[in-house]
Structure formats: structure tokens, C-alpha cells
Amino acid sequence: MHRTLILLAAACACGKADRAPAPAAPPLAHATQADLARDIADAERLGTWSDVAHRWQGQTVRWTVTHRRVLCRSADDCYVAAFPIQRPAKQGWMPQLQFAPGQYDALAGACGGQDPCEVTIEATLSKLEVSPELPTSVQLSNVQILPPPHPGTQTARR
Amino acid sequence: MTKLINTLAIAGLTGTALWAGAATAFASSHREAPAIAEDQYVDNTDVYAFISPNNPNNLVIVADYVPLLLPSSGPNFYKFSDNARYEVHIDNDGDAVPDVAYRWTFRSQRKNGATFLYNTGAVDSITSQNLNVTQTYRLEKVNEHTGQTTTIMDNIPVAPWNVGKRSFANYEQVALQAVTTRNGVTAFAGPRDEPFFVDLHVFDLLGVGGAHTTDGINVMSLVIEVPITDIASKGSRPAASDTSPRSVVGIFASASRPRVRFLRDERDWDHYGNFVQVSRLGWPLINEVIIPLQDKDKFNRSQPRNDVANFGAYILDPEVPKLLNLVLHANCAATPAGGRTDIVGLLSPSGTKAADLLRIKINQGQTNTDSHFPNGRALTDDVTDTLLTVACNNGQHIGDGVDANDLPFTTTFPYLASPHSGNP
Q1: Nearest to residue B43, comparing CAs of B224, B306, B281?
Q2: pLDDT tens for each residue of B160-179
Q3: Where are the alpha helices (DSSP H) in B84-234?
Q4: Pairing with B409, which of A13, A94, B51, B165 sits 20 to 30 Å away (CA)?
């Protein structure tokens, strides 16, 4: 029983340490969705889940994503594909978008009648759930729709 | 999309097996993920839902657990776990968040510990004193928003294992004594013939050819028949013309274990803590073949409302057609650049949120003959062929060559066939 209590106390202490607020991470030099996927894959091998979450949460990202009407039915229920079709997909997660004012309509305008449609967004990666127990989920907030790049411009986001 | 659903319905109703050069098959959700394969008693295998053939005001839900059971598996025959919650969750407003659940919890008993026998003589009744090892259950209805539970029935016997002809002169007569009706709900818990039919040779490098690999196998079944008004949003059945998200219910089954288990040197295990979901299932085959190994255990722990956020890319871009082409030259269509939004559409009928939920229309006027996958799932539905055809997406019907169960289903509750005998 004594040993059990010590173990439980240690577990509680670890839990508290995990939840302690940490200083914001510096901006990432490489913050494409492919960089994030690589970090998550590394965490799967190395157990560095909390490092990944800390490094990425709060980052401003500029990603080209694929919008499909069936998965973005309203401003409150909108998911986009972070990667083009890979045949088959290498990761399952699809970022949930939370739009800056007016930007959901801007998305509809940018896509027009095109479905699916690729758009470039700038957003804050506000929530990243990564752990060995639960599946990855990504939330992008304050989403702004950016104008399409000029022809010949290198996007290099994937 | 309507055309696709019609095609599926026709394929399901006719039960035809049109081979398309190559074929493959999968077990619906039997031993589908690494962690749950180590915890057999809480492994979901299949969920079925259909309007009752005997009362169109009722919905029948079958949740099967404990996969691939040999009938002659004594002396400790299969049962449900005493340290688990078995649940069927129902979303009745289309948001993929469950509103109502039915929860089974079990308790085992033993009359005589001084024998190794499951039964100490011939058994002619579910209350027989010769039935040495028994199990009972409590069935509760849960308000998933408040957590409030209402006991529907308690201390109800689980049907015994079909040990053999020396133990049971008439097994089914005894087993059906486990059918219980209380508070408008009819329930059954116990072993049944495995209703899922498939060629499991698929896992030998997709080498299939119509082998009936689940014939002669049993499973542990939970069956309930409930008034549709008990589960419908606001307690009323939608009008026949209603096409809103409230006109369908979305169903998934799960099993949960206490968070902590202590293994003791000096006595039995102890279990503590909140229950943690360890297995779940709505549609057949999602975790089996859509979710890759890296996320299978995580899928079992996750909730359907997050399926698009967590696993949406796998559904848009599945592995199955690629494998069919690579190994069997099945000539499946390449995944379009826009992804398989047709599959997303099937997972989100009537404007519901896409999720791994078995959805079924509950409008007034819906009858048993309307209940075929993906509108619910009938016991006779050949979902393997249906889903392979959808996955391959080349306009041809793909099948595994196994088109029906080994035993006929019954027309009366609990609708599943009697389990195979351990000593026929």
C-alpha cells in the first residue's frame, strides 16, 4: 500500500508538471504542414509529444490547403486537407479552421464554384493535440484567406 | 450520391456476387487493432441496426463482441467481462455527439467451486441448479448529456454457452429463456452464431477465393429492441417527409475498462478509476482497413464526433483500392485529386456530420425492408462486397465469394442464429 501511495503521488506530481504554463516557443523557421507531420512522426518514435505541442502551438503558419464543400459546411464546422491526395494518405488529421471575421465568406468567394479547391491561408496554430494515446488534431484560428500566388511563385509549403 | 446509394441498396438486396477479376475480403472488426487484440472480451466485432420485422415502431440493435470463438472452448467458456462497460450510443440530432446510450454491466456467479465443470448435469432451464457457472447483467439507459442513468432491467441471466448435446438436450429452448422484456425494452445477452460472413484468407497477402472462414464460429451478442420514440430526438418520430438530420439516428457500440488494474500476488485483480473506452465500432471495416496501424489503437479510444479532424484524410484517400490494384490487379479507379468525397457523403446522410456511425432513417413509415446498409445494417447484408465495390469505385461489383451466413437468421427476437454446439 505504501509503495502504491508513493507511485500515485509521483504520478500526480508529473501531471502537474505537464500542465505548468511554459514560455511561448520562438517562431519556427520551417512551419509547413510537412514539417509538422515530420515532427509528429518523430514523436511517435521518440516520445517527444509535449515538445512538439509546445513548439507548434501559437505559431503563425501559411499553408496551402484543399477545401471541400462536404467537409466545410459552415464557419463552425470546417475542415480542410493539409496535404494533396497521396494515394494513400500518410496521416489522418485534417485541420479545423476558425475564421477571422468575414473570412469564411472570403473562402467561399475564393473557391467560387470550384470543389475541391486549393487556397492559401494564414492562421495561428491555436491547438495541437498530439499524444501516444489519442489521435492528432490540429486547430487553426484567426484564419485569413490569402490571394492566390502569382504564376511561377514557389509556394514550397508541402 | 443518390445513385450510389441506390446501387448499394440493390447490391445488398439481391445479394449477388459478381466477381471482378480479383476479389478480397476483411473481418468487420475482429482483432482489428494491436491493443484490443490483447483484450478479447471487450473487442467490438460488428453492429447491426434495423427496423423490427415484427413491429415497425421498434428499432433492433445488435452489438457483437469477443471475436472468432470456437464452440468447444471449455472448460472456461466465453462470456462477457465483469470488469467492463458495454455500451450502444445513439446520436439523434446529427451532430455525431451521442445523446442516449444503453449500457450493459455483468456479474459472474459460481455455485460450486470444487469442480472444473461449467455444468454439473444436464441443463433444461436457465435456472437449472446444474448450471454451475452463470452470468447476469444490468441494463441501463444513459442520458449522455447529463450522465443520468435509469435502470431498465437488473439481475437478468445471460444465455449459457452451448456446451454440447450431453449438457443441453434442447439448447435453444434454454437460451431463449434469457430473452427479457422490461419497460418496453426487449433484451438478450449471450452466445450466438457469428453472423458476419467473410473469407479471412485475405490476410494471407489478400489470397481469397470464397472460403467460408467464419462458418461454425460463435460470438457474444447484445441485442435490444426499443421503441423508436425512446431514442428519437425529443421523443417523437420524424414525419415521413422529414429529411433533416433528426430523421436519422447514428449508432456506435463501445467497450470501456476501468483506468487502473492492480495485479495482486495474494488475491484477484482490483480495478479502479474512471472507465476508458478501449473499443468502438459503427460502420463495418473502418478501423479494420481504412485506419492504418499507426492510428488503430487511437481510433478505438477516440470519439466519432472527431473522426473528420482525426482521420478524415484516411477516408478521403484510402489504402484499399491501391492494394487491390497492386496485389490483385483489380483495376480499381485511382483516387481522384479531390479525394473520396463520395465516401464522406455516405458517412453523413441527411445533412448529418460525417462520422463512423451506423446511421438509419427512423421516419414514420420506415419498415424492416428499408433497413439495408448503409441505411442501418441487416444481418443478411453482404457489407464486405458492398464496401469493396465502393472502395474500388470502377463501376464493377467486387466480392469475396462469401455471400451468406452459414446458418439462417430467425424472424423472431433475438434474430441471430443459435450458437454452434461444442459437442454436436
Answers
A1: B281
A2: 999 999 999 999 999 999 99
A3: 171-175, 228-231
A4: B165
The DSSP letter of residue B410 is: P
Q: Which of A7, A83, A93, A128 to mutate to test the interface with B (most CBs of B within 10 A)?
A: A93
Residue B99's Cβ-side half-sphere holds a number of Cα atoms within 13 Å equal to 16
Give CA–CA dist A120/B330, Å, rounded: 37
B306 CB neighbours in chain A (<8 A) are 135, 137
Q: What is the pLDDT of residue B24?
A: 35
Q: pLDDT by residue (tens digit) across A31-52?
A: 999 999 999 999 999 999 999 9
**Residue A102 — φ and ψ, nearest 5°?**
85, -10
**How many C-alpha atoms does B102 have within 13 Å on its Cβ side?**
27
Residue B327 — very low, low, confident or very high, per pLDDT cuts 50/70/90? confident
- Residues shown for chain A: 158
Contacts A–B by Cβ distance under 8 A: 96
Q: How far apart are CA B265 and CA B267, in angstroms?
A: 6
CB B191 within 8 A of CB B159: yes
User: pLDDT for A51-61, tens place per residue?
Assistant: 999 999 999 99
What ipTM was assigned to the predicted interfaces of this complex? 0.85
Is some CB atom of chain B closer than 8 A to the CB atom of A16? Answer: no
Residue B75 sits at φ, ψ, to 5 deg, of: -85, -20
Find the CB nearest A89 among B298, B314, B337.
B314
Q: Give tens-digit pLDDT for B260-302.
A: 988 888 888 888 999 999 999 999 989 988 999 999 999 999 9
Alpha-carbon distance B179 to B87, whole Å?
Answer: 18
C-alpha to C-alpha distances, B355 to B259, B312, B336, nearest whole angstrom: 26, 9, 21
